[in-house]
Amino acid sequence: MSLAIGTALLSGCSDNTGSGDAEMDKFISNLMSKMSVEDKIGQLNLHSYAGFRSAEKVNTDDENIKQLMAGQMGGMYGISNVNTLRQLQDIALQTKHGIPLFFGLDIVHGHETVFPINLALSTSWNMPLIEQTARVAAIEATATGINWVYSPMVDIARDPRWGRIAEGSGEDPYLGGEIAKATVLGYQGYDAEFDSTEVMACVKHYALYGGAEAGRDYNPVLLSRQEILNGYMRPYEQAAKAGAASFMSSFNEFEGIPASANKYLLTDLLRDTYGFKGFVVSDATAVVEMVAHGIGDLQEVSARGLQAGLDMDMNSDGFVGTLKKSLEEGRVSEADIDKACRRILEAKYKLGLFQDPYKYLNPDRAAKEVFTAETRAFSRQVAQECQVLLKNNGVLPLKKDARIAVIGPLADNASEMAGTWTMSSHSGESVTILQGIKEAVSNPNNVTYAEGSWFMNDAQLESDLKYGLIGMFMPDFKPAPVHTTPKATLTAEAVAKARQADVIVACVGENAMMNGEGASRADISIPDAQVELLKALKATGKPIVLVLNTGRPLTLVWEDENMDAILNTWSQGSEAGHAIADVLFGDVNPSAKLTTTFPRVIGQLPLYYNHKNTGRPHGEFEKYVKFRSNYIDVINAPLYPFGYGLSYTTFEYGDVKLSSPEVTNGGKFTATVTVKNTGKMDGKEIVQLYIHDVVSTSTRPVKELRGFQKVDIKAGESKTVTFELSTEDLKYYDHELQYVCEPGDFEIMIGPNSRDVNTAVLTVKAQ
Is residue 628 part of a domain? Predict the structure, then answer.
């Protein structure tokens, strides 16, 4: 069937982008009236491209083509080659109804141009900047044929043992909600129409995946409804209200029901409460994995998923393989199938694919709009705002004429700069830290380099991390040895070069495979071999700047005590080395602040700033007292609190001033603080506002973020920062799950982080 015949058969839509709902409904109803039950079920099936390994078992090319030609596929994901995607679209248009495919891909923190990992992006606290990263990613994605991105990942995570904390925005639901909204708008734009540079967002992982017990991937979530509504759900809600086109169900269970079959999550909250109008797709093989959860065989879990509100099955063949039988047996209704099919067809309609199936398949765009000088320059700008200065005893910024020894296994490692969940074909072209430093100094000959150490002492684990994914799908694969030079030799070389330098820049931390999916860690310290290197460098007596590459908070007590400066760079992306050098040498004053709490020891986990008090509270910095809520062997305080981050200048906060000490419930008020730059360098400060409900019918956290502003303040200058709030910002879900602001006293706290705040008291009076 030709394209012309295919679109004629679908009739009734000369231009379906920007049309009203009535026109869309008429078009889709007309199409569905011609479709058999099998045709409708086929639209609910999604598979990865054969070369993209997202599960132990994926379709071969032949299996994909067979399903596609039979009308048993609604979309495909895992490839961004325009020519290949055009061929697949050609096949789809030759099927009985000529329904086009949409094409998806995991585009998590940039596409070909890589931005800092999402956890790093969140530390910028810069919503316009984050929105623009999504905008650039959408332009690059659509230039390579993609119109559906599996992003943003908005899961709140309070336990850094969980590897996927790297993909999210930290531990706070308010900040996470603002970032979720900004990212969706960056991908999709501000109206209902999709132009050829905009993509459908897919919000993941719905829901509560970041609350997995013990930080172990795929684990159950053991939380109450009240706790999730107050502490976890806001980012999903904000994404839905921003118009996200799709959501992805998560692997975990909640209240004994896997998320992919959880009606409370998929329908009661997402659709009925948050007003979500798009479609929900499962994560890869999440449907068949419900069998292992123990709630039924593939037919049973597929039926339960559909009835709960799941619309599309990724990589399980559960829907396409069992729903017809379930319909015949009365386990599901045709109305259930129609509802899901309509949601998929609506998404294609809104994308404009019925009007032009090749809208996103322009082979000329990729050469002009992907990985350009402009996008790389923007990546550098973003990365400059995503590095948290954790410690500095005056060694930073570095002098450009100093003799610098750049040492460590991450110092000259381009591929590791991109971080986890990166599919860019340009990852190997990322700027290394060594390269960035050499280009920044006045004389590159003053910069020496040594690898210094193995990545970790366990060669087998290091090999598994580096090659395990390949070995999973290629049983005969024999990886090359990861340790080829004796560690003592590497360290001796590093120490010798360090002794000849004025300052050491030690580049250590985690590699990309230590973060992301399936990368939970029981020990979140810097790997052992690298710590041994740091101790050898410390023995030289030279000042050491620790440049930390990581995807999660780490335990850094020894490092904090022994390093002269610690710059947490996370994973910075395509322009990592340049952006890191910009900060190291003071061309950019660091301004990022933590969005996760850094523990002192693993035994404190989970550790998060917005915790609740106990009946026997104990001060964070107080020593052990019997029969108090504390540890025998460590103080309660984190090493670095939420919101923390240093600058090359200093800021002084004045008292918090309220527009009135009282407000009537339903009313508005302002909170104001004067911030002075008391140092000698211009800087950006992230001013944070927290609240505490002093007395409430249900217990409340000791602090909750409710506002922030990032302000530029010149050296010696003072700025007045004003927050406009209402009692709506003081609400919470009570024990009856009602969203309320209860009359009484509220502490309004403003400061540079969650620990160091000034406080005023506001009284809310009943109406």
Answer: no
